[in-house]
Amino acid sequence: MDQTCIETYCQILRQELVPAMGCTEPIAVAYAAALARETLGALPERVELRASGNIIKNVKSVVVPNTGGLEGLEAAVAAGLAAGKAELQLQVLSQVTPEQQDGIRAFLDRNAIQVLPADTDQLFDILLTLEGGGHTARVRIAGYHTNVVLVEKDGAVLTEKTVAPVGTAKEGFDRLNVKDILDFAQNADLAPITDLLERQIEMNSAISRAGLTQSWGACIGRTLLDMHGEDVMIRAKAAAAAGSDARMSGCELPVVIVSGSGNQGMTASLPVITFAEHLGKSHQELLRALTLSDLLTLHLKSGIGPLSAYCGAVCAGCSAGAAIAWLHGGDYEAVTQTLSNGLAIVSGIVCDGAKPSCAAKIASAVEAGLMGWQMYLHGHSFHPGEGIVGECIEETIRNVGRLGREGMKETDREILRIMTGC
User: Fold this and answer.
1) Among 46, 75, 385, 395, which is most exposed with the fewest C-beta within 10 angstroms?
2) Separation CA 4–CA 143 (nearest Å)
3) What are 20's strand-pairing partners?
4) pLDDT of 67-117, one tens digit each?
5) Residue 133 burial (C-beta neighbours within 10 Å; 0-12, 13-18, 19+)
């Protein structure tokens, strides 16, 4: 790899491996609300939220952390307005006090929040308008969770950025490919990103333990262990599922996200951590395996876009399987065949919003990644031309991106109609 590519990969990981508390879509709404309140200078008397369909879908059924169990867009807006700290971005609700929780409920009781669908081509779009004390403030976040493209007070523009067209890859993502990702993970000096990876291990392991030891959501992680015991393959699935059990149901522990998603961040990391511990791998080998899984997930997801009807956990679960193959001594062929096999198995899982059942989908995605690896070990693979499987791994990844980005557009709209009763 040339030095520019190495620096690009490090920058991508610094940009993407960030901590977030709570499901990232409601947290992005809360962030917009906190920033809008700071711009207005006071709590508003009237609030209008316009959100794209995927935001509505992903916020509808998930608990907003530090609100005492409240769900939905109105709760996310109220939390950001009454208690959010905008400077904390995706940890905007991490410092909410019990007294502020009362303030969140009090603001909701005022029925001052109107939620409307946004007239937008963007899959990720949040536009918040506040009115109060004779003043107005508007904040728009579009494209991804912290991309503030408009801040306005009383009609005066304070911040404005051009919104990239739908389908535009983030800077540097066009340099991602499986061959270079594997080369980077195996050979690059990881010192510039070690702190990111160690934070990923610490935070994601902590919320997984919470999911396994406490009663969160549908308890998918605990159910897996109760049904199937302590085999390492079961523990790998349970670890990732348990983190989602906790996070989707309001656990206030932060996670390190991947591709804007905590569920993807946990799915890409926790099975790999479980296998590395089981195999007695060194800390450096664990860091390299995590780097491989994280970058493969980002590569897969970049062709799909930030939000889609294609379940992002599939990308992360199959990438984790490929990293586990590498931990067992697998080479480029093992990594690519594991990845291709896994994607061929579970690319039909749809995203119908963030909620407790995400944990079960995560378990299925990790299972597919592990099955893809086992298939390779036994000399079996799916062949080019069978469904979405291409002539090479990069073609398969392009096919997955096309499926998620273009093929599932109507599926996405129908899921939203089902969820909203329209």
Assistant:
1) 385
2) 26
3) 255
4) 999 999 999 999 999 999 999 999 999 999 999 999 999 999 987 899 999
5) exposed
C-alpha 285/C-alpha 185 separation (Å) is 9
The single residue listed with the structure tokens 């944990």 is 359
- Burial code (b: 16+ CB inside 10 Å, e: under 16) for 399-419 equals bbbebbbebbeebbeebbeeb
CA dihedral over 283, 289, 292, 298, signed as positive or negative:
negative
- Which two tokens mark 232? 């390492």
Compute the distance between CA of residue 160 and CA of residue 126 in angstroms, rounded to an integer. 14
Q: Measuring CA to CA, which residue among 359, 354, 310, 313 is closest to residue 72?
A: 354
- Residue 147 phi, psi dihedral angles, 5° rounding: -85, 85
Amino acid (one-letter) located at 310: Y
Widest pairwise Cα distance in the chain: 71
Quote the pTM value: 0.94
Query: In 3-state terms, what secondary structure has residue 400?
Result: helix
Q: Please, what are the domains in the chain? A: 19-160 (3.30.1330), 173-420 (1.10.4100)
